Amino acid sequence: MTIIAAADGSALGNPGPAGWAWYIDDSRWRCGGWKRGTNNQGELTAVLDLLRQTAHSDEPLHVLCDSQYVINSITKWMAGWKRKGWKKADGKPVLNVEVMKALDAEMQGRNVTFEWVKGHAGHDMNEKADQLANGAAKAHAAKKTPDSGPGFPGATGVGAGEDPAAPPAAGQGTGASTRATTTRSTTTRATTTTTTAPPQPAPADEPDLFSFDGPASGSTSDSTAGPDDIDRVVELERSLLTGAVRRDRKQLKALLDPAWSHVCARGEVWSLQDRLAAADEEARTAADKAARTAAGPDSGGHGDRTMELIESRAVGSDSILLVWREHSEGPAVLRSSVWVRSGTTWRQTFQQGTREA
Known about the structure:
globular, Nucleotidyltransferase, domain 5, six-stranded mixed beta sheet, 2 domains, five-stranded mixed beta sheet, Nuclear Transport Factor 2, Chain: A
């Protein structure tokens, strides 16, 4: 019987407090994270940990993933990277190379298929994995350790490591991997197309999706922003709704464009400096409340708002429009926001809110 699992990652600020998770059912799931990591590292580590946790089983594994870059990295580009000495088509080193090498090792001899699912679209297993990954990121933002989950009892070669860029080898952590080395065909699948042949070498012009983790170079994309870009921006928008990010000047400055402006539901126009001043006030209010109630440090959950996505689409090579509904303690607010890419970084440059009647 095939094991079906959803894998996901999350990062508040990207980079920032990060989490990863995979979910099969309520008795088989795992999550973890770091005090600082990227969404890419979370996505990759979720798949790596899932592969290690299921290494003892001869059953096929079917992975549901909302990140096309993770699927393409494993099924399309990895062979080319290996052939070139773990370098990309432009000759630059592959980022997170230790994670990629670990994934490559765990895929050997495995019968694994991948299926892309749209994130934040109501897919039950994907939503569960997303909630676990986001919860792990919030726990690390509050300097707490998330509940790692039951996983597979007795599974070996597990664990993500303390450094998101360098997970431990399969023989480290809770024990050495005992998976048999009998050769089995490795199967890969993207969306609903199944391929039984080994992954093909990466094309010379494979998208440089790993550049999201690297420093800004000032260059822009020549093509329209794709589904992976939209998923990334939606995740960043959600992070802006958390109390931990809304009260953090450093994270806000990383997520908001210097020319950012906001037309709020009351009709006021805010600049970036107005937003940062509001963040300082929110932080002071939260600290005062914690002191009055003798509570510990705020976990980031208090004051969080939820996002109901209505529309998300690219409006150019380096710009994405989101239309969504914000739910909080008061009336719902319809919002639209524009995100722009500068080099390798996505930032919100404009937002408008209209209170629903």
